[in-house]
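Hello everyone,

My group is preparing for a crystallization screen and wants a predicted model to guide construct design. The compound we'll soak is flavin-adenine dinucleotide. Before spending weeks at the bench, it would help to have a computed complex in hand. I've included the protein sequence and the ligand's SMILES below. Output in structure-token form would be ideal because that's what our pipeline reads.
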Amino acid sequence: MLFGCCTNLIDLYKRTGVADKIFWDSRMTMIEPGGRRSVLAPSSLPAPMHGLPAILKARCYSLKDKLALIFAFTACMLGGKPDPSRSLLNWLETHLQTSGTLERFWRLVIASALNADLDQIGLPYAAKVIRELFLNSPQAGSMGMSTVPLSDLYRGAQEYIEARRGAIEFNQNVESAAWDSEANRWSIQTQEGEFVSEQMILALPFEATAKLLPNLPANAEAGQLAASLKSLEHWPICSVHLWFDREITELDHAVLLDRDIHWMYHKSRWQPLRDSKASYIELVVSASREFAALSRDQAIARATSQLAEFFPEVREAKLVKSALIKEMRATFGVPPKVDSARSSAISPWPNCFLAGDWTATGWPSTMESAARSGYLAAEALCRSLGDSRKILVPDLAPTGLMKLLG
Ligand SMILES: Cc1cc2nc3c(=O)[nH]c(=O)nc-3n(C[C@H](O)[C@H](O)[C@H](O)COP(=O)(O)OP(=O)(O)OC[C@H]3O[C@@H](n4cnc5c(N)ncnc54)[C@H](O)[C@@H]3O)c2cc1C
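Reply:
Good plan to model first. Here are the tokens for the complex, ready for your pipeline.
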């Protein structure tokens, strides 16, 4: 899933010719066990009030919850620069949040978007999500989903590279790299052989970067990078895929309240290659180490029985096929002070640049952060050759009254 505020990812999709494969929706349907629905969607009011009528109408929040949310959003808007040493939980404790907003908004929407527990989220990252998804503009908060499998979505990137005389070598694990200062080039060793290059961008996950470090030239900055990487931590995401013999709901996607399963994506409704008379559902469980510890059968049984509490048709439908995908190292956490561990694109070595969602993009662990990191590494590489071009796409400008708040 992406959002309208993901300007660099959208730019990447445009460059690679797949932007029309994204299905956009600005409605977020929140469902309580038993089936009662509330819809968060923008109104025609100017930002930041565009979301207010829907919050006031939402039946999943009590009056006290709604006042608490409005208070927190206002504090987030007017509170100045968020303190990077403070956790979201600590901030919520001093901003009069109710058990309803903690469970049904902060844990469900914000903590699951950032894929970590509330006490493990640095305040600036939570504030960024709130501003982008709920305050800056209706366009920034709009949700995008791929209408094709991700392998098809990213095939455009391969065509883009090959059309520019580049090549992709699949299944090449980089094992070491050495800098030849006389020839001014890198020799990169993989299990299959050697590649030689004047420039190198390392775009690996943070653990893979840490694992490669002992096999790169040693220097003091490389030691500091190794120490920073040690402080980053991964969080799990589980997705349960269920194929039913009939359509179990008319909703395209939903947020499911008060249970382990958080996000429901009804992919057969917006992926044309699927059978539209049956339901192919993906259920996502974020930041839950308890759910990730379940066996395949336990996880699928629990997810299916919880889904039936929201959509009773599940009890009548036949489950034709199911799958569990557990990604124990799905995303890295953004706890307080995490920015001191995120490296810029400048590496400790000559003609080498760093990319990957974990580098210093200002964004949490997302595809947008990955796209930004690639653009920043490309800018740094161009700068090293005396070319000062800008590649990074600016943020979406706030609209309405949010323009006054910058
Ligand atoms: C289950 C799941 C759901 C997610 N959902 C979302 C979502 O809805 N929205 C969103 O924005 N983000 C989501 N994310 C996060 C998003 O996928 C990541 O932030 C993004 O893929 C990071 O991109 P990257 O290029 O930095 O790293 P990666 O995508 O991890 O790419 C790094 C690549 O390096 C390769 N590699 C590793 N070691 C070596 C080596 N030694 N030599 C050569 N290659 C190597 C890896 O195989 C991998 O292909 C999700 C992640 C997971 C796991």
